[in-house]
Amino acid sequence: MNMEEHEIQHIEQANPIVEVAVEMGLRVRGNLGTCFRTERHMGDTEPSLFFNVAQNTYFCKTCEDVGGGVIDFVCQFKGWDRPQAVEWLVHRIEFDRQTRKMYYSKGKKKG
Ligand SMILES: [Zn+2]
């Protein structure tokens, strides 16, 4: 399966990285999160992940292999492969859409 590049882009744009990180259980304050590779941060009192909300990317100053886009985040955080991460993010968009639909349909209810 080879997903089109613009489709991947759409999936990344529809999933804000900080929201995804928080949903996955990461502690985020502003644009700062805690690096999930804590074993690499010996003596580091606050292992920080830096989020770039505008670019929808993140990185860790200490871990060279921690960083990238939303799909990279899901892969690295969960230890999933790319197709699995993409699938999860697609479901997340769908869920979002369903919730919104439910919310808005409430007001339109007749009688
Ligand atoms: Zn790190």
Structural commentary:
- It is a single chain.
- This protein is of the alpha+beta class.
- It has one domain: Zinc finger, CHC2-typedomain (DNA Primase, Chain A), CATH 3.90.580.10.
- 47% of the residues lie in helices and 14% in strands.
- The chain has a 5-stranded antiparallel sheet with strand order 1-2-3-4-5, covered by helices on one side.
- β3 (48-52) and β4 form a beta hairpin.
- The chain starts with a helix and ends with a helix.
- The site of zinc ion has 9 residues, from loops.
In short:
The chain has 111 residues and is an alpha+beta fold. Helix content is 47%, strand content 14%.
Which features would summarize this protein structure in a list?
single chain, 111 residues, alpha+beta, DNA Primase, Chain A, 4 helices, globular
Q: What are the SSEs and their pairings?
A:
Elements: H1 5-13, H2 17-23, E1 28-29, E2 32-34, E3 48-52, E4 57-60, E5 67-68, H3 70-78, H4 82-108
Antiparallel strand pairs: 1-2, 2-3, 3-4, 4-5
The chain binds zinc ion.
Residues 35, 37, 40-41, 47, 60, 62-63, 66 line the site of zinc ion.
